[in-house]
Amino acid sequence: MDENEARGVRNSDILMPYYKLGKPLGYGTFGKVKLGRHVMTGKKVAIKILNTQMLDDVAIQRVQREIKILKSFSHPHIMRFYDVIERPSKIYIVMEYVNAGELFYYIVEKGRLDEDEARHFFQQIISAVEYCHLNMVAHRDLKPENILRDSENNIKIGDFGLSNVMKDGHLLKTSCGSPNYAAPEVISGDHYAGPDVDIWSCGVILYAFLCGRLPFDSDNISSLYGLIKRGLYTLPSHLSPAAKDLITRILVVDPMKRITTPEIRRHPWFQHNLPWNLAVPAQVMQRARRIDEDIIQKMIGLGFNQEKVIESLQNKQQNQMTVTYNLLLDGRPRESNGYLRAEFLEHMTMPGLHHYAGPSSLTGSNSYSNLFENHGASQPRQAPSQGSWVLGIQTEASPREALTEILRALQRLNVSWKKIGPYNMKCKWSPTISGYFSVPRLINIDLNHAPIEDDGSSDGGSSNQSRPTIKFEIQLYKVREGRYLLDVQRLQGVPMLFIEICYLFLMELRLA
Length: 512
Known about the structure:
serine/threonine-protein kinase, EC 2.7.11.1, KA1/Ssp2_C, 5-stranded antiparallel β-sheet, non-specific serine/threonine protein kinase, UBA, Transferase(Phosphotransferase), domain 1
C-alpha cells in the first residue's frame, strides 16, 4: 500500500471510527445512502450522508426534526435511529438497515396484494402510526415509498422529515406530503389534526395494497384535488365486504366522521389473524422497555462497563454504548423479547379488561342539569365500557349556546378574552384583592367582542402590572355528531394560578 492509500485509510478511520462504509444504496437531492457495518458488532447499518453545503435552512430543519423524532422512538415497525456524526461539510445519520427495499416497488411488482398479505402490512402500519400519535408526532407523508420491507416481509416506516410534533389544543396548518395521499383538509388549506390526515393516508395505502392502484389519480393536479375533496373513488368487485367497509370508513372527507385508530383496531377485517405483538396497545408497548440482561452480558464480553452501559440506557444518552446495545437488541428475533409478551399478558389479565378494544369511556360519571358535563382527570377510574376516554368538559348544547355560557362565566370572573377563531379564544386573568366576582352579570353577550379588548399590550395601570397574570386558551372541539369538548390550555403564568382560574371557571359552569 502506498503513502496516499495509507493516508486515505487513516482519514476514513478518523472520519468514521465506529463504522465501515460500503456500497451505495441510494441517492437523493442532498446526498446519498450507503451500506455500513458497525465495527464492534459487525451488524449492518444504513448510513445517510448529507452534504451540508447543499442544505438550505428548510432542509436543515427537516433533518434536525427527523433526528429529534427518531432518537426518541423505539418501535418494531419504525426505522431505528442509531447515531449521528457531524463533520464540517457532512452529516452522517446511522439508521437501521432494511434490506428488501421500498414497499412501493413490491406493490408495483405484484400488481395487487391478496387480503391476508395486505392485512399483514396494514396491521403493522397502524401499530406504528398509533405509536407515533401516542408520542404526539404526526408523520404527514405516509406512502409506500416511505415504507421499507425487510427479508422477513415486515415493514418499517421511515422518512420523518415532514413530520411535526403536535401540541395539545393546537391544529396544524402546513400543506405537505404527496398529493395522491393527502387528506382533503390538507389540500384545502384548512387547519387539521395530525392523526386525522395520517389515517386518511393509511386508507389510501390500504386501497393501493388491495387494488394495485390509487383511489385518487389524475395527471392534472386540479382534477386530482377535485376527486380528493369530493371523495370520489370506486371499489373493485373483488374486495371482500369487510375490506370495502373499512376503506369507506377511512376515506371519509369530513375528518370529524373519519374512523379513528382505536376504531380501526376494533374493525373485524383488521382483527382477523392479528398477531399477539400487534394486539399490544401502543401504551403498553411504550412501557415495555426493560433492559435486556442477555444483551448486557454480551456487551461486557465486548469490553464495556456494565454500570456505565446501564446508566447510559437509563438516561437515554446517545453514545457507542447505547448504539451497540440497540444494534445487538435489534439483531435478535422479535419473539425472543419475552418481556413484551409478559407485558401483554399482564395487560390482558387486568381486572375488568378482557381484550383491547381501544380507549373506553368512564362509567358512572356525574351528570349535570346545565349545559356541560365534567370528565376531568379527578374522576375515579371505572371498568371500561363502550365509548371513548375524554379529558375535559363535554356538552351536547349547540356551539353557540355553549360559547354563550362560557363567555358568561368568563365575564363573571373578570377574564378578558380575544377571539382568534370561530370556536377559539385567548384569555387573560389577574386576580383582584377584593374578590373574583366584582363584575356584574350581563345578559346580552356579544360573541364577537370581548368586554375587555386584549391586544397583548400593557394593562395600563401600575397596580395591574404588579399583579400576577395568567394567560390561557379556550377551544371548543366537535368530538362526534351533537357532542362538543371544551379544552383549556395554559399559555403563560404560574401553574398554581392556572389551577385557580380553572377551578373558578368550573364553579361558574356549575361543575366544581
